Amino acid sequence: MNNNLGSFLKLKRIEKNIRQDDLCRGICTPSYLSRIENNHVVADEEIYILLFERLGIAYDQLLESIEHIDEKIEKWYDSLLNKEEYEVNIEELKGLSIIGGGSTSIKFEIVYCRYLLEHDDLTEVSKVLKNLKQIIKVANNRTFFLYTNVLLLYYIKTNKFSEAVEAGVELLQLVGYENLANRFELGIFYYNFSLSLKNIYCYEEALIYIEKALKIFKDEYLLERALACHIILGTCYNNSRKWDDAIATFRLAERILIYLPKEDQNKYLYIISNNLGNCYEYQGKYNEAINYYLEAIKYVNDDNKSKIQLNLIRTYYLKGDIESARLWLKSKQAEEDSRLSEKYQIQLKIFETITDDNLTIDNIINIQKSSINYFLSIKDWKLTVRYSELFANIYESYSHYKQANLLYKLALQTNQNRRE
Questions:
Q1: Nearest to 300 by CA among 288, 312, 283
Q2: How confident is the model at residue 340 (pLDDT cuts 50, 70, 90)?
Q3: C-alpha to C-alpha distances, 56 to 8, 25, 53, 62, 293, nearest whole angstrom
Q4: Which uninterrupted H or E stretch holds 305?
Q5: pTM (two decimals)
Q6: What angle do helix axes 90-100 and 5-15 make, rounded to 10 degrees?
């Protein structure tokens, strides 16, 4: 007899708003029921049958449900991955998993975390994962695969990409990890792992795993998943200065896009156009970059509008069209967007300063030091390189070659460090 049945009995009694006295009348004493519910005693099977019957639960069906609890948890997980509707009573499932005990209850907690992540309840996920970390050890089993994938997604959502990569590496080091999941689940793992690698500037490594994910999603005819892979692929090519490969990849993404529902196309049109803009900007082809950024802004939602506006301000400035850069700055300032992160506010402040007609060398030094120190403090190596080079060019134009040289060295060193 499972000694966790009492917890489930208590759960169902409370759900039905039945007092202990009423539930146990004619079956056992209230004090004995209390001991049953707290798992201090395992009663005779006949007592469980009568108590559950009074709650409207057939005892034999309950035992059968316990036998299939792992299957139910797996179906719940599958529905979350596929974003499909699946009717589940979470509290009841939790109660049954506790009765099942062992790895079943742990698997429930892992999948529950995945459910919370779907609803962006990061605070609760953090609490559950903290407890799971004390229990789960690296092992070649299904539970560890699920745990790693949920942990990976949590780290991505909290921008802890180095930790995500470390978690992914632990799984990849297991011999036969591919046998712990179906192909679709492996594809998602490879995608999230490559996304994390990309965000810590490990572009060559990211290319390896995004290719693996892409192959799986193409074989399974999962076009939207494949499209997302092409975008990461193109971004990695772009940041590796493989311009032709990047452009070809984004063009292919555009061709896939026509097969998606119309209502899903805009967000990808924004992403593809913005990335093509980045690609041409990095090559110094500013007119082409501006055209793509202007195309992207047609499809962008409010959350990402600031990113495109900043891209336009920067590209117009690099092109030497200071007046257009100022116009976009004024447009951005007029919006008073309180959602802007400090990182974007600092970048806007840079361009407000360097496009000012009354710009002085002291102004440049002040904004350069504060902004570069900030980018270094948050370990944003990409922005550190970008703005070190920008300020170096400005110092050169003022014949301040020593400062320019220091910033070129910083950009070079940062580029080397982020590739190691």
A1: 312
A2: confident
A3: 14, 15, 5, 11, 62
A4: helix 302-319
A5: 0.83
A6: 160
Distance of alpha carbon 273 from alpha carbon 261, whole angstroms: 18
Give the pair of three-digit tokens for residue 90: 């979470």
**What DSSP string describes 19-86?**
-HHHHHTTTS-HHHHHHHHTTS----HHHHHHHHHHTT--HHHHHHHHHTHHHHHHHHHHHHHTT---
User: Residue for token digits 């990095």?
Assistant: 282
Residue 102 is predicted with a pLDDT of 67
CB 224 within 8 A of CB 264: yes
Residue 263, judged by CB atoms within 10 A of its CB (0-12, 13-18, 19+), counts as exposed
Structure tokens given for 179: 């046998």
| Backbone CA torsion sign across 419, 417, 340, 347 | negative
Rounded Cα gap, residues 376 and 364, in angstroms: 18
Three-state DSSP state, 14: helix
Question: Is 419's pLDDT higher than 60?
Answer: no
Contact 239, 232 (CB under 8 A): no
Q: How many CB atoms lie within 10 A of CB 91?
A: 12
Phi, psi for residue 297 in degrees, rounded to 5: -70, -15
Would you tell me how many other CB atoms lie within 10 Å of the CB of residue 324? 16
